[in-house]
Specification:
single chain; alpha/beta; Rossmann fold; 6-stranded parallel beta sheet; about 40% helix; binds uridine-5'-diphosphate-glucuronic acid
Amino acid sequence: MVQSKRVAVFGAGYIGLVTGACLAELGHDVTVRDIDSEKIRLLRTVGEVPIYEPGLGDLIAQNKERLTFTLDAAEAVRDAEVVYVCVDTPPTSSGDADLSRVWAVIHAIREANPQDLAVLAVKSTVPVGTGERIRTALDETGLQRIRYAANPEFTAEGTAIHDFMHPDRIVVGTSDEATARLVTELHQGVHGPVEAIDIPSAEMVKLASNALLATKIAFINEIATVCEATGADVQSVAAAVGMDHRLGPHFLRAGLGYGGSCFPKDARALRAMASNSGYPFQLLNAVISVNELQPRRALLRLKNELGTLKRRKIALLGMTFKAGTDDMREAPSTIIASRLLAEGAQVQCWDPLARSAQEAPWNAAARHPSPAEAMTGADAAIVVTEWPQLKDLDWATVRHLMSRPVLFDGRNVLDPQSMRAAGFTYMSIGRP
Ligand code: UGA
């Protein structure tokens, strides 16, 4: 039987909403607080979720008895036993994390002085040492009784609810056993082992995990480049390499590089953290520059094929940073569209879910409702996101809509032989 707790979650973004909905599903009483009044208005209307995450709308609706939304920080913390901090920590110009939203939560706690509050748990990705700074701030303002936990999140967009409920591990960083026990109890019903460690290590696990995943991607992209020069096929190489249980098959998909709100930001944050302590994290430097080069290399290959990109019409198939999300943050498509426009090309794009982006470069690109329309009259098409719809496209027919049948498969989702049989000049990443 789950011991129901009153929980306040600060931040109604991907992490906060998933955390709030999943904790409510586990039987807790949850109040989610955000500063965005439109978000809160939508959330109060059952079924309307301001972000795209499969299953989240249903989960929120099913748990509406135990899930409330508010703009009022004082109201959220007043009755809480546990406060979860899930606000974003964007990079500052020095590459450090901007913790102002985290400090705003601490401020709200101080103001409301909630008598039942036992634990402040941070899910936001923060530099190592943040927990200690927050501890000091709490102590200095007479809130010694509130205990601190670093409880980083490892869910991926698109599979976040499943990842929350079936994690590989729940990392609980605390400085005492009682706090670790309380955070563990909160997760009763979640299927995964608890790793109770100290606070700085828990903070580092999050950064190290994302950096290592980013390293795997950069590594396979480097292998892909060598494959292109030597005639090997990166898909076959990755499949066989991944069969070694010490290496594993995941995150070995070569492509246009990683994007999203986490890998680019966290890799830079870890690098900044290392640099600030006087240590240049060489390997991470290489990972970051391989990833920055990846879309540019693809465009160079396309330019060589077309002779020039100037006045060429290029169709971008997919805009989001990966399939299964509407998220455009740090998407490789943005670099690709910007570079194409800088070279004088015309950009025509398609994406089934991408949030409409008004700012550059998207304000200069035409968005179409289908891949076929985006490809009409194009001199080349680039598969930027691995949307499953693209696999089922009648490529032999759409080829005739294009001015020139050049196809650059930036995610290696199509079969080279079939594409060539359909009449395309087919290019991809790391395949002969
Ligand atoms: C990532 C991590 O996978 C989560 O564990 C973590 O909790 C999350 O960041 C976070 O820090 O909040 P997410 O950004 O949603 O999750 O997306 P991923 O599925 O990990 O993909 C990241 C990027 O890597 C995408 O652009 C994807 O296309 C790319 N990728 C992934 C590859 O290019 N190759 C691969 O083999 C795998």
